[in-house]
Amino acid sequence: MLPPVDEQTIRDNPEFAKLYRMLLEKALNPDGSTKHDNYIPEGDAVQQGLYQARIDCAETHLLEWAISTVSLSEPTFKPLSEEATSATGLRIEPAEHPLADLLALLPFLINKDNDQCIDPDDAATALSCPPLSELKSHISEVCALVSETLHTAAIDVARIAHPSTNPSYLHRHISSLPNDFAALAAELSEATSALTKNRLEALVSLTKLLQSYTQMLALLVRTLESKHGSASRRLELQALNVSQDVQLTEAGAKVALNTTSKDMYSPEAISALANYSSHLKDAQMRAAERVRSLQEELADYGVDDKSGRDKEKTMREMARIHREMESQMEDVKKDLARLQREL
Description:
The protein is an all-alpha fold. It has helices at 7-12, 14-27, 41-68, 82-88, 100-110, 120-128, 135-161, 177-264, 267-300, 309-342. The protein contains ten helices and no strands. Residues 324-343 are annotated as: Disordered.
């Protein structure tokens, strides 16, 4: 079937809408087949052959699956007691089911998809040897086991198709399983189509909702502009006017400062202040030069910014000792002078 198309696309593309409606109403069936299929007998025969081939293939697969999944009951045997086992020293293992080997080989013989061709002589030899040679004698048992497996599988499928039915009545729905499957397949197809259509409708609704939100925001912006736009423009003009007034006031203050300076100081005072300013600059430069020379002298003595506090302490200690020695020399000179006077 054709995929559904949202209504917005159909409205926006008239030519495509005509083509889409023509395909749905005149050209195609709901299953996607054409409505203008001329009747051809050969085509009917081909359809019948295809249908029969599908039936045969399904039967083969079901039979192969049923044989492969047959549940064999354990053969009955009487186990020996522990005393007998210990006495004889033998341990008897349970024997396999007599149909196990036969059921294991049958699916390979039924499978038509097997690409390996069996030689007729080998096939005849295999059929003449056990366990295939015992097929005729065990055919009734094999058919019963396969029938039981298929019946159990059909009951399980009926339980899925009719979950509310009493388990003891599920076997009544086995004959109607094809119709149930067809009805469920049709419901699934309709539900899938409805889901896809609902998704497209939800997408269209979401698009419309987004468009409505966009229009609402545009109207809100316009409303705010109409309500507060004049006030904001008025405030902007007032701020511009205040800024211009401030600039004019600043220019007037500069002019008044120049005028006041001229009125307060005579040309001689201004010249004297200029000379004094240059003198201060020279004094500052000389002081900086003196500081630099003193720092160089200190560096010669090993005291500078990079030296540690140890050198500074050493120099201070030397200066203290020098002062003490000078004071002692003064005392010695005074004692010598006193002795000379006494002599």
